[in-house]
From TrEMBL:
This is Glucose-6-phosphate 1-dehydrogenase. GO terms for biological process: glucose metabolic process; pentose-phosphate shunt, oxidative branch. Belongs to the glucose-6-phosphate dehydrogenase family. It comes from Raphanus sativus (Radish). Catalyzes the rate-limiting step of the oxidative pentose-phosphate pathway, which represents a route for the dissimilation of carbohydrates besides glycolysis. The main function of this enzyme is to provide reducing power (NADPH) and pentose phosphates for fatty acid and nucleic acid synthesis which are involved in membrane synthesis and cell division. It catalyses: D-glucose 6-phosphate + NADP(+) = 6-phospho-D-glucono-1,5-lactone + NADPH + H(+).
Amino acid sequence: MASLSSSLTYPSGYSVAFSPVNGIRHRSLSFLSASPKGLKADELCVRFQRKFGRSSVIMQDGAIVTNSDSTESSKSSLKGLKEEVLSVLSEEAAKVGSESDGQNQSTVSITVVGASGDLAKKKIFPALFALYYEDCLPEHFTIYGYSRSKMTDVELRNMVSKTLTCRIDKRANCGEKMEEFLKRCFYHSGQYDSQEHFTELDKKLKDHEAGRISNRLFYLSIPPNIFVDAVKCASSSASSVNGWTRVIVEKPFGRDSETSAALTKSLKQYLEEDQIFRIDHYLGKELVENLSVLRFSNLIFEPLWSRQYIRNVQFIFSEDFGTEGRGGYFDHYGIIRDIMQNHLLQILALFAMETPVSLDAEDIRNEKVKVLRSMRPIQMEDVVIGQYKSHTKGGVTYPGYTDDKTVPKDSQTPTFAAAALFIDNARWDGVPFLMKAGKALHTRRAEIRVQFRHVPGNLYNRNTGCDLDNATNELVIRVQPDEAIYLKINNKVPGLGMRLDRSNLNLLYSARYSKEIPDAYERLLLDAIEGERRLFIRSDELDAAWSLFTPLLKEIEEKRRIPEYYPYGSRGPVGAHYLAAKHKVQWGDMSLDQ
């Protein structure tokens, strides 16, 4: 077969080589020499990847690998790939040239609406600083805090500085970086429903933008009942005139199908769908983003990813603390709305989706929606709800949920829920997907557990006298804490006899990778700035998720289902064990070798 390899030398001082991988299935692009004017090859890789919808993948050697359908398509697309690369290179060269002339520069203005709140102080500002610390923010950027509290720029900087931290491996210039970052932070006090106050903010932003192309990102870190007022004012009085305007919206996105649809309709009066970034921070966690990589880039997993080999899948979320004086918000929503309908359901959709056409955001979200629409309505008999009560342990008394002064004494809001869900499609028919989420439990964890079927006619049941049907292979993806992926296998214990035990093939991230894992908000903020929507929730995804849970929530609340009480610090209600047993499942986090 004739070679498809070729190369070109780009006039600006670096060259590119094209070659097929195995001659058929892939094409790769490798950078052979340094790029001009400080544009690093890996930076160009990232920009190339984002420009073409992440359909290309950067390997450790710096190559970009993109999918191709056949030998003929490889031949025909080689020319197209060259043109794509030349286009990117031309853009970058033009950008470098224009920036050196001080013309046509763009700037990003990030406004944190609700800047005095806990989320802004503990998550958003630290994430923005981390991005600045890693040189991920544009050269020209400004951060504005906006809230009703009276505050000066200096007071905002003092407040923000208390929560900033530096990467462990780069602490040498920490203080200097903090000072530089804080100089970019400013504050404007105003009401969330005031056009006048947002107009004043707009004037301040224009002063900092100094005639550059202005791109504006608004992060709504405020209660959902004032989302629409803030969006209306920001859209009409503080939108960018010559760049993009995007709005990040925090959950909850309504309380049910009706209120969620009303919120979406109201937001779309002032914004287009592609301007709305509905954030679920769990989608930004490292192990959740790695889920599709684990499945689609490892041949050993994808063939097993079906009802033929998988017995059940478990999504487990637990916290070892209660509401601790913040029960007012939680009591209005409960654990099902707070955790299951969004975090766990989003992870389930990513786990169960079919292979997308590409890594483009719309292709991935299309597949997630298909999963959600294929799900069987949740039955009340497949659900257990609970609420933690006071418990004394080791001489210490832990308060019950209704002991929280912000919670009504007669509240029946669930602080624990377990449910069995089913996907009625060819891949997953009959496989129970179990969810479990709770507060004030015995440990803090978030994990995905995939329990495989037993080995048919297992030889070692007879020889060893132990029941290996209950010791099947299990893949565990620990999202937090101590991020890890491990596979449980049955293994012979060394010695002359034939004794088996369960062992782990373990990838512990802290041992394998020296780099500190970024916070989920860092990844999601960077994606929002760059216009990458893959990890954000589309409106039809939201509709499908609420359609699944709204009937269940109405039945629980209208019929005033009484939760099963469990002691603070326990493993949760006994009913959760009966639910698992009903579907011939054992919770993976309950075993001795979890």
